[in-house]
Sequence to fold (252 residues):
Amino acid sequence: MQANSRNDTGIAGGAAGRSQSDASRQRRARLARKVAHLGSLLWFSSRLTLGRQALVLVVVAIGVFAVSALTGKITGEREVFLVLLGVEMSFFVILSMGLLPREKDAKTLELLLVCTRSRHGLLLMKFVPVCLFVAAVGFGLAWAFHWLTGGFPMVKMLLIPYVLGATIGILTVVLSTHVRNQYAAGAIALTLAIILGITWFKPVETFYTPRATRMMVRQPTLTLNRVLLVVVFSFLYEQAVRRLQRPELWMK
Fold:
């Protein structure tokens, strides 16, 4: 009797273990399918969003570095920051201004708005490929300038101009939901960025500060400015999602 009881317990334990193993394999398989599906969506969206203009922008970035190296005007952190900011901000605007208007012109945005469950998913599917592309270009340029100038804080140089550029990019998306014309949205976003950068705050001193002047700026002030920048980006992103939650604005 005791032997039979132990055998039954062992069989039950083995069955439970196999059941848990099967459940674990099924969860991994579902996760793998979801990841593969997400990857295929992002790849498809990247081809639609970037297209041939991505190759043109890569050539432009290479040309910017070549001109900077030949002229010898890039000698320190400040110059590198401004070049990276200008390139990334311009690329974000160029790639973001047509994300939604192009879909509208192709008569596909209405279908996406009706069929897509999550507006966050729709916006991310369109905006993430832009972010990845600009991040790759920014990394390549920053590495090249790091070699050219002899070094600077790489992480800060990568992140701060990038977040500034992404903020202008998401602002462009929001503007495109209002004016519907991609070129008007891009022009307004660039104009606002230039005006704010010249008249209100200096992006280098406000968010970065080169090594030579770093000791004269309070670090808590820099940290607060960077946190506020992230808050502004989050606010603009939420505004873009809210606009997408109103399909009637696009059905006209």
Observations:
- The mean pLDDT is 79.
